[in-house]
Amino acid sequence: MEAGAYGMSTGLDFEPQEYAPTSEIVELAKIVTQYHGIYATHHYHIQDQWATTDKDELGYGVFHGPIEDMWYGIYRGLLQAIEIGRKAKIPVQISHLGNVYKILQPHPEYLDRACAQATLKIIDEAREEGIDITFDTFSDNKSICGPRQIIVEFLYSRIEKMNWLNKYSKAEFVEQLKTEKFREKIRDLDRHHRLKFSMIHTGVNPYWSHYFQIIFSNNPAYLDRTIAEIALEKQSNPLDAVFDLIIEDPEIIWTQSVDPRLMGPIAEEFLQHPYEMPITDMMSLPDISISLEEILKLVNKSNSDEILNMDQLKIGLNSPNYYGIFPNLIRQYVVSKKIFTIEQAIYKLTKLPAWRLGIKDRGVIKQGKAADLVIFNLDEIRSRSSMRNPRQQPVGIKYVIVNGIIVSENGVHTGQKPGEILKKNKN
Q: What is the pLDDT of residues 249-301, one digit of tens each?
């Protein structure tokens, strides 16, 4: 804190932080309180994880705790964050708040809206109690996961119990999938709840196949269809349908097209809350535009057996949110749906986050403040990104200015890099 940190953050879905008791976090947060910092938390069970009693089983897809927390943990995690704020007397920032009332089976939209309102009621009641709690969230229900070859989900999985698949090349894996014995070994992973695709665990969410959409295939009949739809047509269970798709087309690409935590009107309800801040939850990427088709040509040209792995994510397999989430927010919620004004949208994107962190020289246009500005045409601004072509610059943004220097003009980077590290009590 003395070096300029704005507060303390936790990621309680990940080891070793998942082992931290509430009491330990409270004591650390009390120190941050002395320096007038905040407590920001990616609280427990935002992720889909399966309970394990094996203390040696670590990593993505599992957690150590009560089995019921697979469904109720996200609710308990939010309550824990509020408790920490109460006991440490510290401002709390909830990282990408999601619906804490899970309804897994297909259901009408009004239930999503009711669940969102019930989630916000928890926030409001904490604020009425005097706890300074705010939150950020995504402005639409697109998943942050980008497109990837389906085969990658098996051969490059982060699930420890799936590591035995890493030894296979793409061609070897396809050949193995043609045998019932090999398929049964993978089905066994599913039966023992050790199968997770992108951010959805097949054991936690039995309707996982509804969220994965085919966006590139040598068979155009599969394009834009979900695994659930394809499995129904083939009269197959979803996992076997996935096996068959890989055999038919090893290059086939899917994406987790929807984030179940923000189904239907949930994002819209969250965005209208006065203490909500829209976020990207994304990293910075090179200033290039490239399509899936172009990436496949590059990969296939270099090695016919090569797999689009995590390195290719840096080239172009990303969520549309990387390039278009804020332009889409303005287009969708200000221009089209009119759920708030442009002034309210800009406030949520600028002044409110600056206030939350305690950054005093940014977030407003005022004499003596840092000149961080985005100049855009409200009639033109929109995202061009899609699941199939995510790396597309938005349109309508004329200038991006950082510390008074133009860094982007009409979508082209000027080469200037005037950015700086911001520190508490110095900015």
A: 998 989 898 888 777 789 899 999 999 999 988 776 665 666 666 666 655 54
Strands (E) located in 95-229: 133-137, 148-149, 196-197, 200-201, 212-216
Maximal C-alpha separation, the chain: 71
Q: What is the pLDDT of residues 54-87, one digit of tens each?
A: 988 888 888 998 999 988 999 999 999 999 999 9
DSSP-derived letter for residue 194 is -
- ∠86-91-92 over CA atoms, to 5°? 85
Crossing angle of the two packed helices 321-329 and 342-349, in degrees rounded to 10: 140
Chain centroid to Cα 79, Å, comes to 21
Task: Report the alpha-carbon distance of residue 324 to residue 385 in Å, rounded.
Answer: 6
Joined together, the tokens standing for residue 265 give 């009107």
Consecutive H or E run containing 71: helix 69-88
Task: Output DSSP code: residue 333.
Answer: I
d(CA 150, CA 214): 9
Q: How far is CA 300 from the centre of its chain?
A: 29
Angle in degrees, CA 325, 213, 242, rounded to 5: 145
* Domain boundary assignment for the chain: 148-258
Element (H, E) at 278: strand 276-278
pTM across the whole model: 0.90
- 3-class secondary structure, 400: strand
Q: Is the backbone of residue 309 left (phi > 0), alpha (psi -120 to 50) or beta?
A: beta
Residue type, 244: D
pLDDT tens, position by position, 329-340: 999 999 999 999
Tell me how crowded residue 125 is: count the other CB atoms within 10 A of its CB. 12
Q: In whole angstroms, how far apart are CA 205 and each of 103, 211, 395?
A: 10, 10, 37
First to last CA, the chain: 14
What DSSP designation does 410 have? Answer: T
Give me the half-sphere count of Cα atoms (radius 13 Å) on the Cβ side of residue 392.
17
CA dist 289 and 269 (Å) reads 33
Cβ neighbors of 421 (< 8 A, separation 6 or more) are none
